[in-house]
Amino acid sequence: MAATSGYDENEPMLDILDPSDYDNLNDPIPWSNKKPTIMGLTITFLLLQILSWSFVCFRLWVRFRIVRSPWWDDLFVVLYLITGTLGSVALLISIPFGAGQHLLYLTVGQAGRYLVSFYIFNASLNLAATFIKLSLLCQYLRVFEKGTWPHRMSKVTIVLVSLWGLAYTMLAFIPCWPVADYWYSPPDAKCWAYGAWSTEELMGTFYSHTALNMVFDIVILTIPFHLYFKPCMTLKMRIGLLALLLMGALVTFLSIWRLQTLVEHKAGRYPTHDPTWYGPISLILAVLECDCASICASVPIFWPVLSPYLGAIFVTQEVSVEHEYRRTDEESKVQTSSNSLPRPGSQTELKPLESPPTNMNYFYDDEGSAPLESTKSHPGVHTRVRSDSMKDKKRGWTKI
């Protein structure tokens, strides 16, 4: 596959392009273009994809097995995960094809394969950005009551995001006609938007897409913000909502940063037409933005189910006090208490210690739990204390 029609794919781009047009060959290598950074980001992207898949799988497990109420937001998050993963793989594939290197130092074949990988990356990330926004907005429709302004705002934003995603995805999938002209680049190629020869048209396409993406991120972030100020919100709920809002703010920050890199280098064509050299930072930020957005969309679904189990890890002792009111005679009460002491799954028996006649009773269990001393007993009232040790898995009942 050749990047320019009529040339051998092993021919250096140096023989095709004019070296005098490239005045950036002695520029310091950006951090995003260095090989250690690229290798580290390769591993990071793989870990982020695993993390995203894990979070989404937790989400789907809760929706299908716990709540048993899947909806459109779950479908969109799955579609995001597929397209986002495809985009990340395309970015990793582009590394040996020249990502982070000067275009002038590539062969025609390398440049062509880079354009193919970028084509897949750009189309996939356009879809992924649309799907994750639709997932969040459909999730809002489940949360907010019909007729309220957040519900209406979510509906309006769904329509706008759908139109935005459809338009730019079509431009990403069909940047030229025929599409293969995007990477073969014949002199008479008919291209537009993402494949435009004109720098102004190419810049306008990237700028408008990224700017609208940033605006939609801010709108989606602000829709649930009013919940923070509701008087019924507990401190724990406020902290959880604030954490989600901060994650959403991180996504918005990445979107703004990506827009700044595009403006700085005019979508890879300033100060020199060198997209393989100036492009990696923008592509990296696009992937990070989508991965963070998927985590932000999935955490609220499974966290309420997962948090009690996480809390149990840090609990070492649980005490439960029960009061029983009996009206039978003393012998019946002793027999009833003896039969009801073990709980399901516990084989511990309580034995009375010999003590002088008094209103104080002591009991201990067979596993060596320390005896507890009761307060003065009252006729007809029995109090039992259940102590569970989370570390030793011991359970015992103590009669007070």
UniProtKB/TrEMBL annotation:
Top-level division of the source organism's lineage: Eukaryota
- Limits of the Rhodopsin domain: 58-307
Q: Name one Pfam family in it.
A: Fung_rhodopsin
> Where's it found, cell-wise?
Membrane
Spans annotated as Disordered: 325-400
Q: Name one GO cellular component term.
A: membrane
Q: Which UniProt keywords apply?
A: Membrane, Transmembrane, Transmembrane helix
Name of protein: Rhodopsin domain-containing protein
